[in-house]
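Anyone? Bumping this.
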Amino acid sequence: MFRKIVKLTLVSLFTLVCLNACNTVDEPAVKEASPASSEATTNTEHNAETQKDATMDVDKTSKTHYVTIEEMKFNPEILEVKKGDEIVFTNKDIVPHDVTEVNKAFQSPTLNSDDSWKMKAEKSVDYFCSIHLVMKGKIIVK
Amino acid sequence: MKTLKTIALACSMLAGTILASSSDSNAQNQKFSDPEIASIAVTANQIDVDYAKIAFKRSKDKAILNFAKTMQTDHEAVIGMATKLAAKLNVTPKTNAMTKSLLEGAQKMKMELNKKSGKAFNKAYVDNEVAYHEAVINAVENVLIPQADNKELKDLLIKVLPTLKVHLEHAKMVQKELK
């Protein structure tokens, strides 16, 4: 009987260790998807793979959306968000870009290759790249 | 009127230099090595940087200066990437017939542009930018990308193509506003 209890305890402990190990492996992927903390910053470590979802929860009320600047386009060109959501722009091109509201209500710093910049969505806006005037995008606040 | 004709001739000569190399069936059969393609890419970008530098001296138009600044920044970025890649691949850009033709055409165009100022310069500059980008896009699409052997060189040319197309669109927009 005593041997059986010891055997069961060992099996349970082994299972617990395995489960814990699995959780530890998953953790970094969540950390990599975390948004940058400052308002205007560069972020060369932004993981492009994690941007595929384009949206992730930050807290219960706001979300972070990702716009990739690649092949001389804002992708997605039209983005629907809620008021207060955060939008992170990342330049994946080899030439610099910026994000400028059509009436110059806001303008990002020049984003060199792999730089990121984030803003908070307050209202619907049309924007463009002031370096390449034909590049345009739209944020729709629902 | 005479100068307009000269500019038009110079534009067509320059565009013709590249187009002849990219459209003519004999030229398309002409094989460029990777070092030659690297030389063509760097030269074509440098020529447009040089045109932009002339614009800074000869024009006061905001749209022209903004466009010229973009050309300088972007083409210098491409030259930087091409030079870095050539060093990584241990490739020395090799001068060839197309490089020489490009430089000869650019020399004539630079002389023409340097003679002009004000509205005449703005028109000549932007007209040349439209013609030049059309010709370069054609050469990159039809000659350089298909002929590049090294994958990284081919990928760089493919990556540069959308930039050239946006430059063309931008140049046409400025050209339309000047009219």
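Late reply, but here is one note on the structure posted above: Chain B touches chain A through 17 residues (CB under 8 Å).
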